[in-house]
Please model this.
Amino acid sequence: MRARLLKFKFKSLILFAMAFAAFADLPLQAKVPETQSEVKLSFAPVVRSAAPAVVNVYVRHRVKQFRSPLLNDPFFRRFFGNQRRGRSRSRMQNSLGSGVILRANGIVVTNYHVIKGGEQGEIKVALQDKREFAAKIILTDQDTDLAVLKISAPNGEKFPFLTFEDSDALDVGDLVLAIGNPFGVGQTVTSGIVSALARTRVGAADYQSFIQTDAAINPGNSGGALVDLRGKLVGINTAIYSRSGGSNGIGFAIPSNMVRLVVQSALQGSKVTRPWFGAKLQTVTSDLANSLGLDRPAGALITTIHDASPAQISGLRSGDVIVGVGEHRVDDPRSFHYRFATKGLVGSTPVTLFRGGKQLKKDVQLMAAPLIPLPNEKTIEGRAPLSGARIANLSPGLAEQLDSDDVEGVIIIDVAPGSLAANLGFRANDILVSLNNTPVLSVKEALGHARVNRRVWRIELKRGKRILRLVLPGDY
Model:
């Protein structure tokens, strides 16, 4: 027994010596770390720098609910949605999201959907150190799902803030951190990589070219920061793909270059004005690519061009396929609109296109869309079914901004939350075709119809490609 034990110990010593010799022959970088800096690999320095500028945004406002007896009819339920029957009543609605401070004087950016309805209520911003400040809305831009707020400290204190990074410099695989307030549990940091760039089929905004990330993003993260490892802002977290409501590792952020454009407009005290292209675009399918002689189904096909638009002045034609703006590739109409919009309103930009099997470049002027006729925005008031709807005269310029196929007539550009029009199901971008069998060609005509008391309202409107004809009672 003793002999066998000595034999076992001898073999163990030999194996240990062999392992030690093998370890000694390893290259230097593969050896066991010896210092704390070698042992500790952490995002903590980035978080300490960036997290104080990420805030919680609380919105509290009163909404009215209207429950119409007409909803007994299956037709009205299909059009207006599944609402309960009864009369109007009000309730308090609370929403929670995140935001990012971008200036030391308290300029905060968040998602529009986070503060939607806050114009009629109160908005508060809570800092990482638990201090709260009342916020006022400076600018909202539904097309990008962004809003800019302003907070002020009573003693003129400067706030911590993040600086912009060029989102076009990101590469798939870059490490990023998402900072926000998921589910209201408090500020949370998650890490991941850039999973994809220029995602356009998300549906969260009109101007789409989202950064996709697998950093965990959950409800409450909306409006929070996506930062790189230098602690600079590369995006605003805005949407997730999920069947459960929680994070499935597919989150989307608005690129910082688009955020920068919206914030600059807010600081200048103006609405967001984007360059006007003046042409309708169509996605290039495989069949179209084959018929046009393209090697792959990508790009944006020009179908129609407005007269005197920058597209026409630059010599573009129907049938041209746009494949690039500046140095960036264009895969579909949404990516074109994003790339063109972020060029601003100075000078011109080169547009790469295919025509007749040849690649061409055209310089397109960057100019604001003309609003002729003037929009003449008005809100319908009174007891008409459209009460609370804000309407405007359509023009080529406004149609471009609203992505409408129609260039004349009257369009609903907004519906006040809790208004009669909202409760009856009217939506922004609905086009009024006729009221009580009379065509509506201007805001003035629409307001004239709305002032007349009627027992029955016959309303014809265009929603997308559909024509809807409604018969509603006149007494509300």
Remarks:
- The chain has twelve helices and 25 strands.
- Residues 2-24 form the longest helix (23 residues).
- The domain at 167-267 is CATH 2.40.10.10 (Thrombin, subunit H).
